[in-house]
Task: structure prediction
Amino acid sequence: MENFPMFCNQCQEAARGTGCDKMGVCGKTPETANELDGLIARLIRLARGAVTTGEITPETARLVIDGLFVTVTNVNFDPDSVRAWEERVDAAANALDAPALDAGRCGLPVCENEDIQSLRELVLYGLKGMAAYDHHAAALDRINPETDAFMVRTLCACADDTDAGALTALAMKCGEVSVEIMARLDGAHTGRYGKQEATEVTLEVSDKPGILVSGHDLRDIEDLLEQTKGTGVDVYTHGEMLPTHAYPFFKKYDNLVGNYGGAWFDQKKEFASFNGPILMTTNCIKKPSDTYVDRIYTTGVVRFPGLKHIADRQGDGRKDFSAIIEQAKTCAAPTNIETGTVMCGFGHDQILAVADKVVEAVKAGAIKRFVVMAGCDGHHKERQYFTDMAEALPEDAVILTAGCAKFRYNKLNLGDIGGIPRVLDAGQCNDSYSLAVVALKLTEVFGADSVNDLPLSFDIGWYEQKAVTVLLALLHLGVTGIRLGPTLPAFLSPGVAKVLVDTFGIKGIGTVEDDVKAIMSGDAVANA
Ligand code: SF4
Ligand code: SF3
Result:
């Protein structure tokens, strides 16, 4: 490792399936990668200081959690901004008189044992995903001091001389706490914006100039919609913002027009043809091309060198989006790139509202299997597997999804079963909790002993660290036999991967033909 300018293995696109060591496949430079590792080391130091002194204040916890979110894939590419975070963390750690950390790979303490290193990385990446979810809940004023303190303690513990058993237990505990955080975020969304409703969203554009909103932050799009009312500027969702349309609160905005484009990795093409300003509220941002670099804005923890940044809101106030709105007025309307509509809005309330119909369809044999195909999208051509799976699953299979993985198949028109769409989209990766609620409810209504006894399989696409968190949450809920693709995480050592395979039956994806056959014959546990 010493011979290479950087090392990062936290996402599915890690170079050669082991780690990026010269330049991030995501575009992260060695300078940024090293600053982000430096930030992790400082956050560990701060966490240690807070745990040792018994002073896990709300301010310390927020700094640790938001600092962790900064290091998630495709959030912050700006070394100057990361250095500013480091200075804030240094100041807080100095105030606690915390000892410096001798950091090695990924900002964690130097460690020679590959299984311990792997487990520490598993816990660290799980914490990063939890931090992302918690950050969104906190933006909607839903904070839980207990889980915040848990995250600080766990960051501290995973860097201590903890043995493999204790680290495995910590990873499982992260799964348990993740369920609480995701439930809190779900409550934050529905509490402020209402329960998602099945909604058909146009993919076509108006003849007015527009602003495209990407990322996951509903409070940001709320502020923007308030400020664009009556200005003649339309607002479109991109990627993970699609479910905005499904909340009753947002239906009152006439200028929330439709959805433009698909998953994050296609943004260069889609942002170019959008013609108007783009607002990146959270991950996933890519290096902008010259065609739109002067009209893309970041906000919150997202940063890219040279891009205009919208400042944080103060207290209960709103962010000031006037600069974006003024620029939009000078831009051409978006170029149409698609026709038709896409369905969204199948959060747990909407699915459970038709629970009777679903149970009836299962009992009558019209629905033979539910397949959870949630998670992330990405560049790898092997991800065609998820499109092919959606097409190859028989007509009596229903796909449950959340996250940007759905863009591989949600516009395919796969039909319905007695009025129940064959793709039920619960929303963002931030809404993954909905899928757990639905699975647990089905367990109850079918009188099954566990989720694994249901006609339900998990075929998950992963990319960044929120997916690691969701995986840990599913393991905590006792789900076994999960398929994970397109590749297993680079940060799993052979020893740790074996434990996950032996204990939980986790497996990589296979061929579409084999996997459809196995899933439809209910292999979830049997093939583990
Ligand atoms: Fe590589 Fe992924 Fe790390 Fe980017 S986030 S440097 S692509 S492993
Ligand atoms: Fe997507 Fe980045 Fe994971 Fe929200 S936006 S799921 S990858």
Q: What stands out?
A: The two ends are 35 Å apart (CA to CA). Residues 15-192 form a domain with the Substrate Binding Domain Of Dnak; Chain:A; Domain 2 fold (CATH 1.20.1270.20). DSSP finds 16 helices and 16 strands in the chain.
